[in-house]
Design a protein that fits this description.
Layout (H helix, E strand, L loop, with lengths): L2 H23 L3 E6 L14 H7 L8 E3 L5 E3 L2 E6 L5 E6 L13 H12 L8 H5 L1 E8 L2 E6 L6 H4 L26 E7 L3 E6 L13 E6 L3 H10 L4 E2 L4 H4 L8 E8 L2 E6 L9 H10 L2 H9 L3 E3 L22 H10 L6 E7 L3 H15 L3 E7 L2 H10 L5 E6 L20 H10 L4 H17 L3 E7 L1 E6 L2 E2 L4 E2 L10 E2 L1
Parallel strand pairs: 1-10, 12-21, 15-16, 15-17
Antiparallel strand pairs: 2-3, 4-5, 5-7, 6-7, 8-9, 9-10, 11-19, 12-19, 13-17, 13-18, 14-18, 20-22
Amino acid sequence: MKRRDLAFALPAAAALAHLPALAQAGKKTLTLGVTLEPPGLDPTASAASAIGEVTLYNIYETLTKIGPDGKTAPLLAERWETSPDLRTHTFHLRRGVKFHNGEPLTAQTVKFAFERAASAQSTNKDKAVFAGMQDIATPDEHTVVITLKAPEPDFAFLMGQATAIIVEPKSAAGNATQPVGTGPYTLERWAKGASITLKAWPAWRNASAVRIQRATFRFISDPAAQIAALLAGDVDVFPRVTERGASRFKANPKFQIITAGSRAKTILAINNGKKPLDDVRVRRAIHAAIDRKAIIDAAQSGLGVPIGSHYPPSAPGYVDTTAVNPYNPDKARALLKEAGITTPLELTLTLPPPPYARQGGEVVVAQLAQVGIRAKVHNVEWAQWLSGTYKERQYDLTIISHVEPFDLGNWAKPDYYWAYRNPAFDKLHEQLQSTSGDARLKLLADAQRLLAEDAAAVFLYQPQWLTVASKRLSGLWNDMPVFVNDLSALAWT
């Protein structure tokens, strides 16, 4: 090659070297890996958090939007005011918003959505929130005034959760399979058992800012397959990837790993309504048989913080109650004897599909066996867990992660799946609804201690989530107060 030719070849070679980066920067598609397939696409109809992972802030929108820091920002409501007594909340709606079917967003639409969520036919997981609305006034097309039966200091946050999506009256009944919302994406295809694909909606009010034009959620439950899909480039990002495989990516310059804090509580739930589990001594014995650290190591590869009640260390008002029911196998045996239990005590341990449940369950079985409790494992699919365990209470013990940030009040629900009843806790919860400041923090501490003393469940740990993604993907959340994949915030760089 002549020197003159070489001079031209070098810049050309340099340009070619940059082509992959330039192509990536212009990329408009994204493939996400998720562990669970949602049972439907209407988050107001089921307790499955997998629905919100696909739909919240993507297909559907809410009055407020929860950010990675746990704070609320305007979304369908441009602004809002709250009365001093925390009972009246006035939302001023964004103007010009339309649903995917062309219908306009109005105050009457919001009223319909919330009354639907509170109706007798509603299966909304947070139905009590909407049933607690004493009045929903619509003084004009863009103003909604909600008066609550009791004060709710966290109301703005609750209005940003998946259960508070604003649905359109004509299409609401079909949202499970043909979702209609006001968000930046619409459903393009649902290949049952394989994937869900969303496409950008060109009529969205801020469509020009959306960089990802098509996003596919691939369902991959097997931990080894999750890792293989990432390494092969079949998925670009896997939120909450199985911790055991994350080490494969630490030294790989193609990937980024985000360790995200959460408001989740992973527990060994106990059916308080079944004998002999209705005896606090038996529940305390189960608690004393469990070594939280061993569970965290097995289910989370050590990525978790032990908890002693239904409250995470990252939340305001947290108190450390892990010493209330410490690991003590000898005490567990003594408590069972005191309760008149003839060992081995036969119980069923129901485990849903997530790896944290199945892997943690192996340790639970072994630890319970050491104190005379024989736990028979019953592995179920997610739909079975929701119908049999959550709805019908057909279980003794189950491992599950409660991901809702402000869900302490679930222990005051008489028909909730763990069948816990304590008038003292109910009174504390009622006081919490009308108290703020330092006095509220004290009540929160009292509520945490009471659940720990009652051994209402075996409170295991606050999980930390690992997200593995391409190094070139930006906009991922650093913390996860709620389970969402905010597609419109993502971009290739």
